[in-house]
């Protein structure tokens, strides 16, 4: 199977799992379920669920049903996008080429839709069928820390907001990206590893992989915001500069930023050596993250 | 010990547990932890944690550490208050006699503080020490469903918002209150019962108790909004009528509403019969919920 066929197949698996775990649009109260589904099924690439599922298969001691655990990463990612786009935060009207949640459903419902996706993520993990309760708790711990305020996604969002008024230093940049995008991508890989029954050694190797691609993802994101148009990105381009965000190109320049992304890609590859051919798809996923154009 | 001494002691236990589970104000990024703590430690009565701890003791097979599970109910309750008070929702500037979170920290930080408390609740439950993982998962399931979109708190909030434009019928009122306030109060009692190792029969009895006091709580809340001043309530009085909310007095009138609260109190008492003297505090808590003045 070609890599693009593989990606399409994996997206379909993630979409199917999401459709199963989120209440239908006919479920009362209908508005909230419509709002949740509007942003969930808006053409997301499902990067986090796919990383989770593939990390799980690479370990491979338990695979069945991992798509439902993987789906919870997309619930968290989507909640963060809905809240990020709100007028009080990034005030963005466009996401994946469509009007953002609050533009369609109003601010009140967008706030509640984000809250709902966040809540549902933990419900789904707690209710995972056929999975040992200790593993379910480990997954919930992993996801909540990755999304949280100390070293997780919310820490990154807060630092990002506060960074708009601060001096763009390498240290500050590192603290922002590591939490904002890095924590959930790292968590995606680690949740897959935990689901798959990873040994300590395997978990450590996959954590290194997750951190490297998390960093690479953010560097490339910052570069694309400069080099691509809004049409190509499906979201507003050039926002980082307009909002005085601390980005890799601002701190290191474009060329050095590109070299750093390549370094992280090499690190991701070398972290996978112990898995041999079983990690072929994880290698391709790392390549895709660095060489993407949107 | 008098009941008021008992209440003060229980509030102190809940406060101590909250202080332990929430990162300190010095934890980076400081702003978010300050915002979380501002609303958490704003003089809340800790009704939900106290109900949880007391239901646990009434069952009594396991009690140690229940205050940390109980604290997660206050995390959820506080997140819902912060988001409810936002300009896009109830647009309230006053809560427990103090400026609301977004007035002090800005809307962006208030949205993130709510998200943070919600996320932290599940982290705390997943990490509960010395508790069987199956019980931790059961608590997470209970809390996420009670806070969720189908029969939980968010369902109630959505119905409440949409009810402002709808005909005030008994059926609609029931659907709102059962979810909006009822689900989390019911969940508080049930989480305590689950922590305490309840049998099916004990869990069923305490569920009936939780539903009765949940309903009574909301009826009294609606009555107080009419009969008390803003100073007495510590929040804006008379808002229900101003916002055309569907309330018990609107649907049933004041006198019938008071009779209904008394009926639910009687139901709460009779549900506790099997526990005898062990449920003395739960009976007093039910009395207090109905006979409170704020």
Fold and architecture overview:
In chain A, α1 (3-21) crosses α4, α3 (47-59) runs antiparallel to α4 (66-84) and α14 (254-271) packs antiparallel against α15 (280-290). Chain A starts with a helix and ends with a helix. The longest helix of chain A is centred in the last third of the chain and has 28 residues, at 200-227. The first copy, chain A, has 15 helices and two strands. Chain A has 294 residues and is an all-alpha fold. The first copy, chain A, is globular, with a radius of gyration of 18 Å. The first copy, chain A, has one domain: Farnesyl Diphosphate Synthase, CATH 1.10.600. Chains A and B meet through α2, α6, α7 and α8 of A and α2, α6, α7 and α8 of B.
Key descriptive features of the protein:
mainly alpha; about 290 residues; Farnesyl Diphosphate Synthase; two-stranded antiparallel sheet; 15 helices; homodimer; about 70% helix
Topology of this structure?
Two copies of one chain form a homodimer.
Chain A: H1 3-21, H2 30-40, H3 47-59, H4 66-84, E1 94-95, E2 98-99, H5 101-105, H6 107-126, H7 133-146, H8 153-163, H9 170-195, H10 200-227, H11 230-233, H12 239-242, H13 248-252, H14 254-271, H15 280-290
Antiparallel strand pairs in A: 1-2
Helix pairs in contact in A: 1-4, 2-6, 3-4, 3-9, 4-6, 4-9, 7-9, 8-9, 9-10, 10-14, 14-15
Q: Low-confidence runs of chain A (pLDDT<50, min 5 residues)?
A: none
Mean pLDDT of chain A: 95
The CATH top-level class label of chain A = Mainly Alpha
Number of strands of chain A: 2
How many structural domains in the coordinates of chain A?
1
**CATH homologous superfamily classification of chain A:** Farnesyl Diphosphate Synthase
CATH topology (fold) name of chain A: Farnesyl Diphosphate Synthase
Write out the strand line-up for the largest beta sheet of chain A, numbering strands in chain order.
1-2
Order of helices and strands of chain A: HHHHEEHHHHHHHHHHH
- Largest sheet descriptor of chain A: 2 strands, antiparallel
Helical region count of chain A?
15
Q: From the coordinates shown, what is the CATH architecture of chain A? A: Orthogonal Bundle
Name the chain pair whose interface involves the most residues. A-B, 53 and 53 residues
Oligomeric state of shown chains = homodimer
In helices, the fraction of residues of chain A equals over 70%
The Cα radius of gyration of chain A reads 18 Å
